[in-house]
Every structure is written in C-alpha cells, then in structure tokens.
C-alpha cells in the first residue's frame, strides 16, 4: 500500500473517532456530567483530521505542479 492510500485510510478512521468523540461530548453535556476530558476528546482527532485533510486536498495540485515541471515545456 502506498503512502497516499495509507493516509486516506487514517483520515477515514480519524473521522469515525471524531464523530464518536462529539457524540460522547453531547451525551455528557445533556446528562450534565460534562468534564474537562469530555471536552478535550474532540480536538485531538479534529486537529489530525485537519492536517490529513489539507494534505489530501493539496495532493492533486502538487501532482499537477510536479507533472508540469517534468514535461520540460
């Protein structure tokens, strides 16, 4: 498996982890058992989602840029 496919798989699993963290946080708030750890559970996967998402977003543009340099035009 190449690097891009591996990163896409990580991005998908991070989205599941983020969704679960948000659901747990909502349940904690509704039950008025909100604590610091429940509030801080979502930002970690969200930060990693941001980084992997930005990479995956820029990937086609980077490939085009690299391809333009190789053609020797």
UniProtKB/TrEMBL annotation:
Membrane-spanning ranges: 12-30, 36-57
Keywords: Membrane, Transmembrane, Transmembrane helix
Full protein name: Transmembrane protein
Transmembrane helix recorded as keyword: yes
């Amino acid at each position: 498996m190449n690097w891009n496919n591996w990163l896409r798989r990580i991005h998908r699993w991070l989205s599941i982890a983020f969704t679960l963290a948000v659901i747990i946080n909502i349940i904690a708030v509704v039950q008025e058992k909100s604590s610091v750890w429940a509030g801080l559970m979502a930002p970690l996967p969200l930060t990693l989602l941001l980084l992997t998402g930005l990479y995956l977003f820029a990937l086609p543009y980077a490939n085009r840029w690299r391809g333009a340099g190789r053609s020797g035009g």
